[in-house]
Amino acid sequence: MRISGLKLYAIVFLIFLYAPIVLLPMFAFNNSTVVSFPLKGFTTQWFQNVWNDADLWQAVRNSLLVACTSSVLATSFAIFAARASTRYNFPGKGGLMGLIMLPMVLPDMIMAMALLVVLLGLGVQLSLVTVIMGHILICTPFAVAILSSAFQSLDKSLEEAAYDLGEGPISTFYLVILPLVTPGIISSLLISFTISLDEFVVSNFLGSKDKLLSVYIFGQLRFPKSVPTIMALGAVLVALSIVLLALAEYFRRRGIAKTGAKDTGGFL
Amino acid sequence: MSEPKPGRFWGSEAAAGLGLISPTAIYAILLLAAPLAFVIIASVLTDGYLQIIPKFQLCNYFGECASYKAGADGTLVETQKYLGAWSDPVLFSVMMRSLFVSILVTVATVALAYPMAYFISFNVAPARKGIWLFLITIPFWTSYVIRVFMWNAILGFSGVINSLLIGLNLIDKPLDMTFSIQAMVITLAHSFAPFAILPIYVALEKIDRSFLEAGQDLGENRFTTFLRVTLPLSMPGVVAAVLIVFIPTIGDYVTPKLVGGAKFPMIANVIEILMLKGDNKPLGSAIAVSAMVIVGLISVLFLFLNRRYLRGPK
After folding, report:
1. Across the interface, do B119 and A100 touch by the CB < 8 Å criterion?
2. What is the ipTM of this complex?
3. Are A99 and B25 a contacting pair at CB < 8 A?
4. Could you tell me how many helices (H) and strands (E) chain B has, helices first?
5. Quick check: B281 and B231 in contact, CB under 8 A?
6. CATH for B89-310 (3.40.50.300, 1.25.60.10, 3.40.50.12240, 1.10.3720.10)
7. Is residue A16 part of a domain?
8. A116 contact residues in B (CB cutoff 8 A)
9. Residues A13, B247: C-beta atoms closer than 8 Å
10. Residues A121-158 pLDDT 10s
11. Cβ–Cβ contacts within 10 Å for residue A34, how many?
């Protein structure tokens, strides 16, 4: 096989995309307090620092709590929206769906500040709850995008068959529709979880002293001393998110195979 | 929606749809639409001490404004004067810089993404397309803050690029690439690459391959076929890619902080300072609204210029 110019370009592009991620483990095992070349030697000290950092573990616990709650709630909200938009026509559909999908393009900062000003004006104390409120807004559009394609690939005649066999709308939903879109739901949960775990701006501005992992990392990057530890943490996070994404992709494909539709590509 | 009720609306398709979407819609209206509306309103009100005074004015956008504080007898005392978002040269230059950076990032990202999307759509075997798309999306989902920070390690004095160039004896002294607009553009182009590739890829996939053969049968070479058939047909994807990169980039907060070295604040950084430390919510709101208006107008203009590509099949 000849290597065309285009293929070469694609490989260079992948190197560009992966450069920051590939460097993470290199610096994570590098025996130097400075993140620079040439590499000095092998150490696992930075991973030990990660392991022994109590603040970091508290941030991890906060992040997991927020990510679990946000992904479950965002996916639940998205099920309603995706089902309504793929199954029914109703007045105001374009506007409402546009509003629900808006956080996908709206700068996080504007959303975070708008919500912050209103929450503070209402006298709401910032806490993990206010962060979750923001994360649900951010995760829902991605969940809707995944679930819409899951609902869209449903064959309507399956549903009609259930009605003909005497099932009502609710039992049809539980017995026929839900099992068919379950892979889509799992994929949506995993993607929402990953987005929430990674989100910084809303977590920072709607959060209180209870820091989330991304906020903790951002704070630590100001201190050159703690940068190698963050590199080690980053390497762990990269490994974890690859596992999560592979799982999400597996369930998404299984869902498509289950409903007999054609694979149309990635998550977005 | 469970029990069909008598009457024309209840039990209709419209009622079922609206009922089903209502939990999500109400959440978005309360936590997204209402706060955004509040910001728009706050941008035309008066700045007080830790509060917003409900007095209409437009000087947060144009002209000179004053902040007030409640005096001992309850009357308002003027504390300081400030210029509106479009009148203050510093704020105006921040808005223009953000716009400039977003346009650069958008052009760079989309131009770099197009050949990649083209490669996956036209040169990769159908069975392997999924894995290529997966490869492209992975970096996007991994710790955003760290990923942005890593560009310092790549572009820095003893970073990857300088070490490589010195190692190859191409340069004597390390190049100073960090804390610059270019570094910010590279970082942002990296962050948004998957967002640009995917819509272009989807548009390219929709192109009927027989059109390309027809073009070549009619005497076009591969390059003119691309220019006259493939590119126009993929424009809806390019337009989507442009908008999905351009709109969020103008409000990016992390990159100017970590890679711009705080020397080149963008709109989001200024909004933060004004809304929080500066305690000037009306002016901060005016900048947020100005940013939304700028991206809104440019997006509409861009859609208008590309309208002939976006019409559906005749």
Report:
1. no
2. 0.83
3. yes
4. 14, 4
5. no
6. 1.10.3720.10
7. no
8. 275
9. no
10. 898 889 999 999 999 999 999 999 989 888 887 777 88
11. 13
